[in-house]
Amino acid sequence: MARKRQRSRGQGTLFRREGRGPWIARWFDCTGKRKEASARTTDRAAAERILAKYVGDAALRKAGVVDARTDRYTAADRRPLAEHVADWKASLSAQSVTQKQVALLLTRVEALLVAVKAERLGDLSASAIQNAIGELRDGGKSLQTCQHYLRAIKQFSRWLRRDGRAPDDVLAHLTGYNASTDHRYERRPLNADEVRLLIDTAEDGPPWRGMSGADRAMLYRAAVGTGYRAAELRSLLPVSFHLDADPPTVALQAAHSKRRRDDMQPIRPDLAELVRPWLADKPPGRPVFANMPEKTALMIRADLRRAKARWIRGTADRGERRERRRSDFLAVVDDAGRLVDFHALRTTYITLLVKGGASVKVAQELARHSDPKLTMNIYSKLGIHDLAGALECLPGAGSGAPERERMRATGTDDARAEATTSPRLYPQQLERESKRPRATPCDDGTPGGTLASKRKTPMIAESSEPVRHRASECHSDATVAQLAEQRFCKPQVDGSSPSGGFIACTPITSHGVANPRSFRECIIITE
After folding, report:
1. Which of 18, 96, 379, 426 falls 20 to 30 Å from 344 in CA-CA distance?
2. Residue 501's pLDDT is what?
3. Distance from CA of residue 182 to its chain's centroid?
4. Is the pTM of this model over 0.70?
5. Does any domain span residue 225?
């Protein structure tokens, strides 16, 4: 009769399979799961020591003395790095990332891992990756390409940390490159005339790798009219076109959209009318651009060359033909080195929206970008004439400042505004001293100087009234007592002021006695 196995009391158990072979240790880990491992020995005493080690480690981790995640990190580090890359590939595929993008990421990551000779997770370091990317740059790669490699390997490093395979992201502090200082492949947008000639030439042209001229012309119209990318245009079905809607729209399913959202892009009514008869011949349930070739850049460049040749032949003047050959119009590569490929039609779509006056938010929504910086800085290509047109809102630069600005600058409307004014008038011009509301004129022609019998309410002259730089002085000593409060002078007889007026001056006092020949403030008094 077989002896019944005793239940473990937290110390684990040892047993043999079929009564022979090495001892098997069985215990519970820190999470309560039953674990089983071979002691790899037939010696019971040695097997008991091994079991005690397993039980003790589980107790330490259960009590929090030892971090249980360390075991996962250690186990992950024992695995070859190629296995982690394979798991990352499966994770990307499960996230609905396109196979083309997955293959591109894997190619870049594997190239860097081979360059740093990394076989385990512990071999992955920031300095080694930085040196490997630096070698790519020294080997002739552009900064934009180096940036793509860096983004791929950093994406892999983030996944290792989030999946619990590494304690931290060892590449988190690596910074990218300023790709704007090393532009080697920049697309140029087409203008409206170039788009029209390209479509007309493609429609009349022969088939190109199985795609007819009419289909190519409609493909270019759809690309410029919706801003959809090449892969997104390939997925369009006849039911994607809602031509009777207000406004007409072209729908894009989330599975085929780059941002993984259902998109509904509005189109112009005239484009909808052109699409309607062309769409009638397409079989339902099949992509309308099913025969669209893979090398779309070669296709559009072939049509551009034919369009330019047709444009050059459009004139009989030899000089004009030479000018057209040297022109950037319909050129595959312009003088600035910018190229035209199929994705340049999307750049054309966004650039024409911005030139048409669309706001930043509207342009971003129609471009389906998550960041407006991408819309305005990368896809919007404005020329010098577009920038010069915005200068019309600036004020014109005249030959001289307006008269009103000159008066404001000098505090007077005198014809000699540029001349230096008397220092006695500075306080009034700067309005640092208040003007006296009333003043009584004096009569120099009367012996002894008597005050006028009738006072008149004075008014401060406007800035248009002329100001004399030096007021006339009253020389009658009989009126010194009256001038102690306020001094009146002769009427102003300047021909520029037909209404006339008085100059009122406040004398400077010394020890309580007014000096009639020194003035602190002069103002204009008019009747």
Report:
1. 96
2. 52
3. 19
4. no
5. yes
